[in-house]
Amino acid sequence: MELLIENIRSYVPLSTADEQVIGKLFHKKNINKDDHLLETGQVCRRLIFIEQGLVRYYLFHNGEEQTHYFNKEGEWVCDYQSFIPKVPTAVNIQALEDTIAWTISYDDLQIFYQEVKYGERFGRLGVEQVFIDIIRQIDSLYTDKPEVRYEKFMRTYFDISQRIPQYHIASYVGIKPQSLSRIRKRISTQI
């Protein structure tokens, strides 16, 4: 739970009493590789913090999986479009590795906001960061060529790129695996 406490503390100060509240509200969960944390049609009922592991977000588009996002150690996982209004999701979230996570339900998150001194501030700052990340990703999909999207992927996920199968990276960039191979070859000859 230390990484979880450190992450929350990076947004807001925490007292010993705050840490005790967090210890009661968050629950540890082990997730096996390839298991889904969330599947299309389900309601997202938990906000998840990854202590160890890696997950991807994907949708089905024209009958194919399209990877939209990755989360790793020290990051939060949630489909806020489902979690906040409690409606079924279109998103799938899948563990790419065995993952250790800390989870909190929507109702317990409301208690967190009330009982942790700066709990609501933490929630606002976290959602602001998610919003910025999503806008950047959408802008890139509409304005950048695949090679630029791949270069951005490598800058954003340089520390985990070797842990992600190439076909998921190709899907994230929005191209076929064969096209990704050509882009990687072009980039490597430029170095």
UniProtKB/TrEMBL annotation:
Gene3D superfamilies: Jelly Rolls. It comes from the Bacteria. Residues 29-114 form the Cyclic nucleotide-binding domain. InterPro entries: cNMP-bd_dom, cNMP-bd_dom_sf, RmlC-like_jellyroll. Pfam families: cNMP_binding. This is Crp/Fnr family transcriptional regulator.
